[in-house]
Amino acid sequence: MLSHSLQDIRYAVRMLRKNPGFAAVSILTLALGIGANTAIFSVVNAVLLRPLPFREPNQLVRIYSEFPTMQLSKFWLSPPELIDIQRDAKSWQAIGAWAPGGQNIGTDSEPLRVTSAVITRGMIDTLGVQPERGRNFTEEEDRNGGPNVAIISHGLWIRAFGGANDIIGKQIQVNSQSTTVVGVMPPNFAFPPGSSDQADVFLPFQFDPANPGNRGSHFLSVIGRLKPGVTISQARSEMTSLMAGWKSENRAQHLLNPERHPVVMLGLHEDVVGSARRAVLLLMVAVAAVLLIACVNVANLLLARAESRHREFAVRLALGAGVKRMIQQFLAEGFVLVFLSAVLGIVLAFVGLKLILLFAPDSVPRTDEIRVDLIVLAFTLGLSVVAVFLFGLAPLAQVSERNLAHWIRSAGQRSIRGSSQLLRRTLVIAEISLAVVLVIASGLMIRAFWKLQEVNTGFDPNGVMSFSINLPATKYKNPDRLRFAETLQQRLASLPGVTSASLAGGLPPLRRINANDT
What we know:
Order of helices and strands: HHEEHEEHEEHEEEEHEHHHHHHHH
Helix content: 40-55%
Shape: elongated
Radius of gyration: 32 Å
Distance between the termini: 76 Å
Mean pLDDT: 81
């Protein structure tokens, strides 16, 4: 059996070398289909299938607030609201919170501007991922007025400090303040979850529970870890009961309540994936259709090629090869085609992934985790096996014991039987139908994209330039900041070609809504 298979493969290779035009067209057609599917499945695997890189991620829940009357959904929480939930809700093992920001980091070579996250001590415990070097923040470090300490990402440790072994306890400059590094997170730690702008520096929140600030100051992102055996539905029910109790107590204004200011909970993976799920799955369906079209194309080529091989088939059958032996030969030829196509397809997938990552919008989460790994290669292998059976057995439609006499009589002629013609016409119709569906779907997507580009933003962006600036708090106190801002605005307005200049705390529509807005 093995010797027959090797013989069939060698024969298939000789046939492809004998017909280089057919081989090139078939391999390239299949490679495009396999490559597209491999690249998009890499996205599907990273975004939808791969668990989040935290301990028991199915227990993690994203906690939001909402303002239905103001149409504000998936909103932040304020520190007093976080304290209420931590104190009264019993469904949680741990609850952590963070607020994003940016920091200037002093290094031995040059300062760096990095993304930061101010986190509560419970954030790392909630995620269940401990520092690979050093430790988490202590309770003392997370209190108001605590020491200046930081945990850094593995990437920043390598980039800025060369992976130095003495990093723990090292004094670094964070916004011109001497800060002690107490921990380094592991390489696969990605935070905030699903964000394209990962934090490199983690600082303790250090707010005072006795004086947490304004209830209307919503800026905290919150994640909770459910207790074992507690479902998200049970946690929601408990929160509804708590909000009803808080409302009846009327302890303070701006209190969480089920009607005007409810709490919303989503599984963390569901929250990270969000609306990208539908888009990614639609893209997967589209490239699957492309592969199907490629297989139909190659099947048609094989059928056309089979017409010129009637003499060969007739001689094989006459010598007692049998239909089963012919099937083995067809599968061997299909295997060789698919193997070469898969190798080229994987190369194309790597190129395609680079383009996808280059142009991927920020709305696609976990782009830093997209790669061709063993799972993706296993998918490509399975896809290749399916492709072999989709087109590799197409010539079998012309092979049967009943055709033997006809083929021997017509071996010197070109003969196209009705069944073969019908199959080829059916394949062409199917191919055209799939292509039309893809063209229409692509047209609708392009139309929707252009419609989004034409949405009225509420302001005229033409001729407008923007930039951001961060002033170290240690060098610029509040009066100095104001003077700097006024001077900067005056100098910008006096530049040639500048008609006006202004300063703002944030730009629409990205400005973070905070206390004064709610």
